């Protein structure tokens, strides 16, 4: 049968205001609701037709597309697909504020498709367990070079006594005698039918006659466990490591959730990290800075390496040491940058003073230094 024009369905003009469209739909929905017309398929079809029309005309973008292109303009936009009524109904609650739980209206007509929160009973099928979070603080070195650590935490686990059935005798669940497995009970409010979770089974649709004593019928118990976590080299502060299926066990034998281990890196006393590079600072005697020479420093991993200080190096300048930085996933390491802090002796021997006096005489002395741009010495 050909579809009717949406404006004709609601009985409004094409230039009707949004509030007029809303009132027209509310009137039709109340008139043709199946609970008011039990067994009347014609009334149910008119209710669906009116709902489909309002789902398009009640939203500006869909209405504009429909006005311009007709039914073709709203294909794929929720204008004619049954599952889209789940999103439509969420915007209709203000239309039926005085008529109780509006979700039961759509649940009774569309079979609770699309996840209606008010009409969908809880399933006793296996469900995935919750993910868990664990925060750890790592020493700087272990974050840079990687490590394996052991952590202890509590998680939901399948009850060993009942095997997760929740039943003491292994008989499992039986159909709830109150709701007959529906998970909901209904009561009438005028000509509207309101659904509520069954008080006997809590919406599960099934009950356990003899609950397991250890898990009290849930099939889940809390237990402590220890696992080893591998921290990859070069992990950044704030990153997480995912341990699959080490979260809470799933209800009714469902898959366990994951464990997320969040990394917090403790600051180091001498080293800093910037991306894949490491930075540190060392004091260099003024004679070594002036004449150049070799100095030995200790790297983050405890090695002692010799680096060459070029003659005439200035205070605050960086010396680059290749591949002594942070390991990357590809295997290549960043670099280590050593900041030189030229050290002026606070006390001089008599001979030292004589030598410096000779140096001043030989090299001259700058008694009128010029101003230097601050940008040239930033970070020095």
* Helix content bin: 10-25%
Strand content: 15-25%
Counting H and I runs of at least 4 residues, what is the number of helices? 9
Main sheet: which strands, in order across?
10-11-15-14
- Distance separating the two termini: 83 Å
SSE order? HHHHHHEHEEEEEEEEEEHEEEEH
CATH H-level superfamily title of the largest domain = DnaJ domain
Shape category: elongated
CATH architecture annotation name of the largest domain: Orthogonal Bundle
Tally of separate domains: 3
Radius of gyration: 37 Å
Question: Please, what is the average pLDDT?
Answer: 82
> Can you tell me the residue ranges where pLDDT is under 50 for at least 5 consecutive residues?
78-94, 97-122
Describe this entry's structure for a reader.
This protein has 380 residues and is of the alpha+beta class. It has 9 helices and 15 strands. The strands form 6 sheets. It has a 4-stranded mixed beta sheet with strand order 10-11-15-14. Strands 1-9-8 form a 3-stranded mixed beta sheet. A two-stranded antiparallel sheet has the order 2-7. Strand 4 and strand 5 form a beta hairpin. Helix 2 packs antiparallel against helix 3. The relative contact order is 0.09. About 11% of the residues have low confidence.
Question: Secondary structure elements and their pairing?
Answer:
Layout: H1 6-10, H2 18-32, H3 41-57, H4 60-69, H5 85-90, H6 103-110, E1 132-138, H7 140-145, E2 147-158, E3 174-175, E4 184-189, E5 192-197, E6 206-207, E7 220-231, E8 240-243, E9 259-265, E10 272-274, E11 277-285, H8 286-291, E12 293-298, E13 304-309, E14 318-321, E15 336-343, H9 350-363
Parallel strand pairs: 1-9, 11-15
Antiparallel strand pairs: 2-7, 3-6, 4-5, 8-9, 10-11, 12-13, 14-15
Helix pairs in contact: 2-3
């Amino acid at each position: 049968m050909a579809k009717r024009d949406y404006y004709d369905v609601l009985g409004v003009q094409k230039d009707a205001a949004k509030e007029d469209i809303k009132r027209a739909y509310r009137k039709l929905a109340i008139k043709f609701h199946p609970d008011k017309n039990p067994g009347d398929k014609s009334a149910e079809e008119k209710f669906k037709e009116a709902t489909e029309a309002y789902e398009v005309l009640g939203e500006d973008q869909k209405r504009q597309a429909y006005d311009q292109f007709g039914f073709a303009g709203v294909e794929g936009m929720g204008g004619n697909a049954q599952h889209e009524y789940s999103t439509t109904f969420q915007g209709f609650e203000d239309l039926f504020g005085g008529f109780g739980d509006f979700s039961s209206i759509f649940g009774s007509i569309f079979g609770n498709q699309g996840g209606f929160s008010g009409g969908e009973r809880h399933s006793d099928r296996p469900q995935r367990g919750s993910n868990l979070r664990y925060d750890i603080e790592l020493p700087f070195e272990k974050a840079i070079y990687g490590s394996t650590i052991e952590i202890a935490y509590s998680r939901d686990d399948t009850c060993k006594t009942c095997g997760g059935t929740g039943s003491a005798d292994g008989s499992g669940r039986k159909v709830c005698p109150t709701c007959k497995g529906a998970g909901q009970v209904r009561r009438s409010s005028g000509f509207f039918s309101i659904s509520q979770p069954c008080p006997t089974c809590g919406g599960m649709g099934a009950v356990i006659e003899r609950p397991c004593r250890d898990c009290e019928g849930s099939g889940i118990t809390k237990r402590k466990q220890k696992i080893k976590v591998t921290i990859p080299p070069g992990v950044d502060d704030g990153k997480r490591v995912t341990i699959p299926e080490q979260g809470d066990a799933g209800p009714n034998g469902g898959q366990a959730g994951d464990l997320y281990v969040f990394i917090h890196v403790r600051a180091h006393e001498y080293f800093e990290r910037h991306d894949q590079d490491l930075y540190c600072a060392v004091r260099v005697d003024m004679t070594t800075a002036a004449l150049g020479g070799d100095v030995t420093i200790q790297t983050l991993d405890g090695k002692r390496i010799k680096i060459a200080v070029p003659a005439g190096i200035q205070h605050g300048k960086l010396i680059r040491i290749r591949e002594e930085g942070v390991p990357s996933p590809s295997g290549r390491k960043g670099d280590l940058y050593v900041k030189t802090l030229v050290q002026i002796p606070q006390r001089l021997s008599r001979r030292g003073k004589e030598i410096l006096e000779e140096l001043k005489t030989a090299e001259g002395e700058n008694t009128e230094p010029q101003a230097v741009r601050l940008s040239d010495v930033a970070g020095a």
